Amino acid sequence: MRTVLNILNFILGGFLTTLSWLFATVVSIIFIFTLPLTRSCWEITKLSLLPYGNEAVHVDELEPGRKNALMNSGGTLLNIIWLVFFGWWLCVMHIMTGIAQCITIIGIPVGIANFKIAAIALWPVGRRVVSVEVAQAAREANARSRFN
């Protein structure tokens, strides 16, 4: 089912959002001051291409022992830079694509996936794209460690 939904996403506009993320990745490589944003761009490009079966998870959820206040502060600063230069127009693109996909009944699940990615597009630094199973396992491990 994931494969069918990923193909449907690609056909119904996912290729445009993926190209937009690739463009943002290339631009972030060209401008030296945005180079730290390149990894986040690439991670969300993968999610935009294959939204089903993958999930964007914050690094703190994947590796809770490596939390660092300095890195979180730097990530927040990078997210603000991201929002100003890239985030707002990528978010708008995902919202517009999601609305267009939701017009058709068959495109509603794909449109909902684009709305989820639109939220991630605003604040992506510090997120990694992993399989749904890995994300679920990380959440369960974090819950066990908090309550034990």
Key features of this structure:
UCP028777, membrane, mainly alpha, 148 residues, Inner_membrane_protein, cell inner membrane, 6 helices, globular, 7% strand
Form type: globular
Secondary structure tally, helices: 6
Range of strand content: 5-15%
What is the overall pLDDT average? Answer: 86
Number of domains: 1
**Quaternary structure classification:** single chain
Structural class: mainly alpha
Any idea what the radius of gyration is? 16 Å
Unreliably modeled segments: none
- Strand tally: 2
Organism: Erwinia billingiae (strain Eb661)
Transmembrane segments: 7-33, 69-90, 102-123
Subcellular location: Cell inner membrane
Keywords: Cell inner membrane, Cell membrane, Membrane, Transmembrane, Transmembrane helix
Describe the protein.
The protein is mainly alpha-helical and 148 residues long. It has one domain. Helix content is 74%, strand content 7%. It contains six helices and two strands. It has helices spanning 2-30, 38-49, 59-62, 69-102, 108-122, 132-147, and strands at residues 54-58, 127-131. Strands 1-2 form a two-stranded antiparallel ribbon. Helix 1 crosses helix 4 (69-102) and helix 4 packs antiparallel against helix 5. The longest helix is centred in the middle third of the chain and has 34 residues, at 69-102. The termini are far apart. The relative contact order is 0.19. The mean pLDDT is 86.
